[in-house]
Structure formats: C-alpha cells, structure tokens
C-alpha cells in the first residue's frame, strides 16, 4: 500500500525529469544554457525578419476583395504570361547552356582555365552596372548593338526595348547572360566528381562520343540537374534586377515580372502595396509545391549550394 | 564492336589500317580543336560585349552617348578622375556612399559569420535537441526568393521608422545570407572530429572556450568562403537598398547608380566610371578568394 502510493507520488516528478532530460539531450549543467544561447540569435532573426514579414504579407493579402481587382487588371495578366515565358526560356536555356558548357570546360589545358576565369565575369560583376550597360547597348538609335549592325552589315537594327516581345527577349537574354556562369560552375563541379574509372569502364564497353554523355554523364548528373532546375525556377520567380534595369517594365508596363509589378508599379507608382502583395502571392500555388519538392530533394541528395 | 571488326580484318595490311586509324584520330583532333576555338571565340564575345560597352562609355570624352561609333575616337580617362574627386554635382557624395556600402557589407559579413557559426556550433557540435528544426527553417529561408518579402518588409520598416537606417538593410541581408552559412558550416564541420570537443570538455573548457579556441580556428577555410559570399551578396544587392535607403545620408553606391539611370540628363560617362569603380572591389574579392569560394559553393556537389 505505502509502496504503491510512493510510486504514484513519485511518477509525475519522474516524468517531468525525463521530459526535461529529453529536451536537454546529452547536454549537462550549464552547457544546455550555452547551447540555447548560441541558437537564440538565429531564431530571433528568423522570427523577426522571416516569420513576421511573411505573416504580415499574408494578412495584407488575405482580403478577398483584392483579388477581383488584381485578376481583372490587364497588366497583371500580361505579367503572368511574361512570367511563364521567362520561366520556360530563362530556366531551360541557361541550364542547358550550363550543362553543355560545363562539358566544354572539362577540356584540359591552360586556355580552358583562362577562358573559365573570363567566363565567370558576368556573375562576379555586380548585376547593376552590367544590366544598365545592356540597357544602353540595346538602345535603338545609339546603342552598341545597332551601331555594330550598321557598321558591319549596313542593317538598321530594330529598337529593341520599344516592342514588348523584343524587350522581354532582351530581359531573358540578360538573365541568361548573368546566370549561366553560376550554374556552369556548379555543373562543372558535378562533372568533376564523377570518377574517371566509370568513363574508363564505359570506354571498354564501347561507349564513346555522344553515348558517353547520354549513358554515363547525364544519368549521373540527372539528380543534380533536377535540383538545379527547381532552384533556378524559384530564384527566377523572385527575379527583380534583370527586368527592372534592362526594360524597366516597359514599354507601357508590358514586360513586368511579378516582383517588379508588385514592388515598382503597385507599391511605388500606384501606392497600393496590398495589390502588390496580392500579385506576388498569386505565385504561391506554384512556389509552395516547388519549395516542398526542393526541400525534400535537397535533404535526400545533400546537394549543397 | 569496333574491336571485333579490327580483329577480323585481314592480316595482310595491318600497317596500313593502323596508319589510317591514326590519321582519322588526327583529323578528329583537328576538328574538335577547331570546334573548341569557335566556341571560345563565341564565349568571349558573349561574355565581354556588355562589359566592353561599360568601358567604352566610361572612356567617352563627352558626356554624350548618342554616338554612332563602336569605339570612342578620343578615349579619355578623365571621367574616372571626376568621379574620384567628386567633381560633378551628381557625384558630390560619392565617397560618403562608398563608405556606406563598405559599412553595410562589413556589418553583414560580420553578423552572418557570427550568427551562422554560433548556430551551427550549437546544432552540430553541441547537438542541441531538435536542432533539425532550425536547419529546416534555414533551408526554407534559403529557397524563398528575397523579393517576395520586400513589400511587407518595407512597410514594417516604415511603421517602425527605420527607413533610411542602414541597420534595416543589414538585418534583411543577414537574414537571407545566414542560411547558406549554416549549411556550409555544418557540412564543413563534419570533417572536424568531435573528439576534440570532448577532450576539451573533459579538461574543463566551457562551451564558449571550445567555440573560440577549437571551433573557430579549425573552421577558418569555411569562414573565409562564407565571408566572401556574404560580402559580395551585401555589396551587390539592390532591391532592399533601393527601397529602404533613399536619402543622401544613408544612400549606398548601388542606389546612387540606380538613381542615375532614372534621370534623363545624367552624364553617362561619369555614371559608367562610377559603375566600374563600384564593381572593382567585389571583383577583386571574388578573384582572390575564388578557389575557396567555389569549393564551398559546390561542396558535396552530386551525392546520390
């Protein structure tokens, strides 16, 4: 009788202690305090500058009366089309180029190494000066491109930034120009981590030339390539600079992407930040699945970027 | 396949066939070399044209870029001198802006390294319980585009009166650069044996001492890689600086350059000279730390 009550009395205390021990893990005494103190700065930053703005944004965009206004806006619909085109071409062109070029940069010799040093320039130089430079190069009357066309071929080039499709194409071109080196360097490292023995074995089996790529290299790079495609898609959805500096969203607001539409037109020009948040939030149905897939992929493949 | 046919070939002309194969191999080599040369030229043109355009405009003697040539007839480096001596009213606070950029980048680098290393020390060395939650939060931050939070962040900063305060931009850049730091530190930390920490603990070292005396010195290469990354990120970032730093006092070089673009009467040769001076520090940093950076950048490249 007494023993039972003693156990029953002791039980909550035991449970509390084990829960406490569970939380502390293997850490003893003041070490646990230190460990918590070390993560507190990041948790603070995360809550204050990720969770708080995200919730604030969701709250701003949660007003259902915003969406009819957003979806009936022809400029918004144009922007959605632009975003699709930008995603389809921007992501695939730059990653395909990067895949091919990473093979080129596997060639031995000092020349390839020197070329690689030059080739990474677009990525190493800040976006701002080069995008402004491209903006001027494409000027219809005195840009470098049309001057060169005139001097070399006697052709009058179009005014690149005055038509929607040429301007959008120019923005995609700038984006590809800027980001191809980055993905090339990553894919190059991926190719370098494939052991030479696999190629030697494949060579014995008769896989040379194109078969070497399709049967050996690409299957081994496929997972990395998929992860990079997802990552490039997400990064491109949030791209601001290439459209903002190259076309400025023009002509007549016809080349905006979601980020530039939300920030520049809705918030700064119209003074309606809620509209901008709603426009940006309309990308969430695409963004959230991508983020979930990518986070799973990143964890299983441990591809660090 | 090829080996079989080679073996089945009549033995009468082995010398001739090997000669033919050698010639074919040589021809193939010439072809690939020629192909590589063509690719190289195209790549050089592709890469350097926009950069050439910056340099060309900065060398124009007049501020006028409404020209029809593809190289200035009288190149002059005077515009660089004008920028460095703040000799034009557009540029009167160039060095102040430059200082702002340096301050911003320096602070971001410092806090990214501090917060990132403390967090990964606690998660992967002290093995704090449920550390994976923090790792996942960091991963999530890494994959969310920064521009998606720009509008709410801008409004929040306005509400608290923090616009034109460099610390608001430092905060957001630290937020978006720290996740990368946490990954790289955790990944790199795996190569440092935990027994070092254990033995220090037995000798009576406090966690703080282990962090300063053992962890940080051994992590030096990863610190350099991540520091370079954070420095470049902060120096090159535009959107948040543009939104939050708009007055003369707080403006950085990036914002000033963007402002140039929006005015129609700007002297473009000065602007491009400014752009070149603005691009040089990150470029030099990048090329100095390139090898360390790319090794960190692609660590674990294609596992699985």
Write up this protein.
The complex is a heterodimer of chains A (305) and B (304). Chain A is mostly helical and 305 residues long. In chain A, 78% of the residues lie in helices and 0% in strands. Chain A is flat, with a radius of gyration of 27 Å. Chain A starts with a helix and ends with a helix. Mean pLDDT of chain A is 84; it is low at 1-10 and 301-305. Chain B is an all-alpha fold. The two termini of chain B are 32 Å apart. The model of chain B is unreliable at 1-10 and 297-304 (pLDDT under 50). The interface between A and B is large, with 101 and 102 residues.
Keywords, separated by commas or semicolons:
A: mainly alpha; 15 helices; 78% helix; flat; disordered C terminus; B: 304 residues; 14 helices
Query: How many beta-strand elements of chain A?
Result: 0
Oligomer: heterodimer
Instruction: List how many beta strands of chain B DSSP finds.
Output: 0
What is the helix fraction of residues of chain A, given as a range?
Answer: over 70%
Query: Helix share of residues of chain B?
Result: over 70%
End-to-end distance of chain A, in Å? 64 Å
Strand content of chain B: under 5%
